[in-house]
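Task: complex structure prediction.
Instruction: return structure tokens for all chains below.
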Amino acid sequence: EIVLTQSPTTMAASPGEKVTLTCRASSSVSYMHWYQQKSGASPKLWIYETSKLASGVPNRFSGSGSGTSYSLTINSMETEDAATYYCQQGSSYPPTFGGGTKLELK
Amino acid sequence: EVQLVESGGGLVQPGRSLKFSCAASGFTFSDYAMAWVRQAPKKGLEWVATIIYDGSSTYYRDSVKGRFTISRDNAKSTLYLQMDSLRSEDTATYYCARQIPGYNWYFDFWGPGTMVTVSS
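Output:
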């Protein structure tokens, strides 16, 4: 089973700040997917196949990476971006999720 | 609009069974694999099971294999999860999720979830 390690576990960012969240896989994967989850709500697909934005996701978000290292970047933090973000790999069975990064507003 | 709505969660004693369902609408249910993903309180996400579009193949995480059964009724656009021999570690919110077709598994729509508490 591929283990995904997200860092940092928690961080705070000010409005307008650039934010980068990292996800490292214990073995190489073909793609990484990202989900946003706000408190009390279900997860939403946010970025799929490493770099494609899901419908309705603002273009200040981007995704990149390959092999064992992937990242989600917010070009300019906004209030509504405060949430927990999970990475997920599905190219190796079983599908696994990272532990999440909680992004707070500073 | 894609909608997934789970129902049937609740409080159950260890060792007992529970079955809940997920009603799907807004898309051709029989075209998609479906999955259950759970989240223990204050914890991360954990894939539980997947069933392919026609129900002919199912997949489970090791910790639920032999105890949980995923099934579907395409005529009713409904997904099910039968949970037997429940353990305290099965306590979680269970989400029904639509799975993208193909070999790269990920989930594009999620239901609001149903809470299952396993406790005596």
